[in-house]
Amino acid sequence: MTTPRPHPLAQRLAKALDAHPLQADQPTGAPLMCMPEVEEQTEHYLSIEHGDSADRGMLTGALGGMLGGFWIVMGLIAYVDGSTQLALKAFAVAVVCAVVPFLWEVLRPMPLPILFNRRTREVYFEQDGELYHTAWDDIAAAAYSVSTVGPYTGRMGHAALEALLHRFGHPKETVLINLGSPLGKRLEMQLGFWEYLRAYMNNGPFFDEQGNNSDSREFAEIQQQVRNSKGQHIRLALSEIKEAYKTNNGRNYLSGIDFVLLLGGVMFLPMNATQNFTYAIAKRRSRSRWPKLIRERLDPNGPTTRLVDLEQAGRAGAE
Question: Which of 75, 99, 71, 96 is nearest to 85 (CA)?
Fold first, then answer.
């Protein structure tokens, strides 16, 4: 009789609340749920934001989009009043407000995302210039509940979803990573996200609400609406107003809250648009920082050999 191999995170989970060891081929029964941290999902790979990358572009949006926009308006007013010199000064301040933070955020290295590669069935992660990875079929992951206590918030419950990876070429050096922030997440949400990742890696790239392979992208697009609606406050407010219009048959459908949300969307449009643009540029630049063997495997026509296979071949050659 074969003795089951203990889960690699069993010792850690023994101290956790409501712990769930996870495996690539074992469903949890939770309904699929995508998280806003999923920044990109293609036919070949899925990427998850890591570190402070989610905030990239916020400074440029605030200074360039809002403050810069204010000075542009002031400059136009001065120009209409005939104060050309004052208008030029206002425009110069607007340019400084936009260009300086934009260059700082774009040129500063952006944390690389966590990558799930369907072609090679691997997970990649970079930290301090070191590459970590694991084969998807052998991944060791876990979800469990945690709680924090603050002086003002009291006790708050969260849930973590973690995976164990090892350093490329050094199997004994491991790192435990969070697949997204645990703050504000319930255990059911994290288990649902795990099922989403399982569906993508095992049955994807596109699938239905049961996780079965599908030719339609509809379910994936619906799941990613939270991410895609980032900064799209005007569109969201208009969609809410349109829905209320249909529900009330065109009568008394516009509330004060709807008007405030729509007005707020208009006011923050420069900030959101500038932030999203800066984020897109910074993300594009950061991808060139992946090692060559990862960039090759992200290419649709690149090699499909796993990094673990390269490690094994290297050890066999050394022997």
Answer: 75
Find where tokens 């939770």 sit. 30
Average pLDDT, the chain: 83
Q: Which domain holds residue 156?
A: 1-51+112-207
Is 90 among the domain residues? no
What Rg do the C-alpha atoms of the chain give, in angstroms? 24
Residue 267 in any domain: the answer is: no
- Return d(Cα 268, Cα 279) in angstroms, integer: 16
Nearest to 62 by CA among 272, 287, 317: 272
Contact 57, 105 (CB under 8 A): yes
**How many structural domains does the chain have?**
1
DSSP of 271-306: HHHHHHHHHHHHHHHHGGGS-HHHHHHHSTTS----
42-75 residue pLDDT tens:
899 999 998 777 788 888 988 888 889 888 989 9
Residue 236's pLDDT is 52
Residue with tokens 């290297």: 314
Residue type, 52: D
Interatomic CA distance for residues 106 and 108, integer angstroms: 6
Asked, for residue 163, whether it belongs to a domain, the answer is yes
Would you state the pLDDT for residue 154? 53
- What are the structure tokens assigned to 124, written together? 């990649």
Cα-based distances in Å from 122 to 72, 114, 128, 185, 305: 48, 11, 20, 25, 10
- pLDDT category at 2 given cuts 50, 70, 90 is very low
d(CA 227, CA 41) in angstroms, rounded, equals 11
Residue 57 phi, psi dihedral angles, 5° rounding = 100, -15
User: Which of helix, strand or coil describes residue 170?
Assistant: strand
